[in-house]
Amino acid sequence: MPEGKLCNRTPINTEEYLSEVLADTGGKQYYKEMEELDVDVEKLQASLKATLKSRLKTWLEMCAHCGLCADACFLYEVNDKDPKQVPAYKIQSTLGEIVRKNGNVTNEFMRHCMDVAWSQCTCCNRCGHYCPHGIDMGVMFSYLRGLLNSQGFFPWELKIGAGMHRVYRAQMNVTEEDWVETCEWMEEETEEEWPGLKIPMDVEGADIMYTLNAREPKHYPEDIAEAAILFHLTGENWTMPSQGWEQTSLSMFAGDWEACTMQVKTVYEAIERLKPKRVVGTECGHAHRATVIEGPYWAGRPDGLPPRPYIHYVEWVAEVLRTGRLKIDPAKRLKRPVTLQDSCNYVRNHGLADITREIMSYIVEPEYFIEMADRREHNYCCGGGGGFNGVGKYRPQRNVALRKKRDQIIETGAELVIAPCHNCWDAIRDLEEEYEIGIKWSFLKPLLIEMALVPDHLKPKEEEE
């Protein structure tokens, strides 16, 4: 079968097509069609010729098979040190074979590559951190995902996710109307407790433009309200755009580079339109990677930077704590065992480990902050990054992957895990549901609001009397 009705080489670009794929519960028809999907060898060869440059070729050829990447990989560890889980083996036996055979591969082999690319690697790049030759395995697996995507061999949920970005410019079906109405609703909900609080939309020239994760308006609207409360408490001149507010990229997980470009350009267009002094992104690791680290290159920006300075939420939080614009009530500092999850995407891949620990110094009593044994840039993936959390086909493998983070947390004795990243937050929530180790988990926002000293002029009138 050249191509199926649902599983094919055609991206989702319309609501009608998106609805069709969504209606296929669990991707049953999608994966059945995939078993018969032809490999377009000529197209694959053309892709390799156009995109396989000297860096990737060199990395494939220079691997010394030293094995240092093995012990660096949490998936190797939790799967009983299976040699097939060694990162070097995983990439050489998939991408390496595609290159060596110049794209002359079978359907069965491509489905095997899909399983490896999305259930045996989260692109956390911890292995690359330890490679003596500096081989960036995360980049190599991302490249492999792109090849597989172009041939139609990628998970059902990620076809939907990339399609959402193409249709709605958000990872979920949140329309502009839905978005604006959700913000208005959250403003109304907080009005009584926080008099004068506004959620400003499309204000030009603000000090801050705030962007976020579509999961927030879709499932966690209170997160929008919490961000607004903290901006209100600190007296920020801020705004959010009605278009270009979503900074995440399931397209990146899917290997759909065209959709990645479409998404990040939408955010950058909002920045150019509103001309804020800078942009702050929500507590999300891959969103930061997609808009700040990778995004400028997808958008073709020669300086490798977004249109305005663009910082992660933890950077903004550390700044307002450091300058005293947000003051913490000493009596409310955390006095129970607490640990911190380091997000791969903004700690290992963007060096913000010191920033997050600065925040901990303000909100946790020193004797109660317990570091994981492997921490900072050496920390392990939460177990659900790179799209792993959201693919039902690979849920059993994902649940095994969570064991590394489970063991790390148990070893600290922590009762609370602070996770300033959506994927990490979700993975740790699922970890607790799966293994019941008796922990709580939290973003920064609710903790900060609970601890903040509120100036008298921002309190409801009855509290002033």
TrEMBL record:
Keywords: 4Fe-4S, Electron transport, Iron, Iron-sulfur, Metal-binding, Transport. The keyword DNA damage does not apply. InterPro entries: 4Fe4S_Fe-S-bd, 4Fe4S_Fe_S_CS, Cys_rich_dom, Helical_ferredxn, HmcF. Coiled coil: none annotated. Pfam families: CCG (PF02754), Fer4_8 (PF13183). Residues 60-135 form the 4Fe-4S ferredoxin-type domain. GO terms for molecular function: 4 iron, 4 sulfur cluster binding; metal ion binding; oxidoreductase activity. Residues 338-424 form the Cysteine-rich domain. The keyword Metal-binding applies. PANTHER family: FUMARATE REDUCTASE IRON-SULFUR SUBUNIT (PTHR43551), HETERODISULFIDE REDUCTASE (PTHR43551:SF1). This is Hmc complex, subunit F.
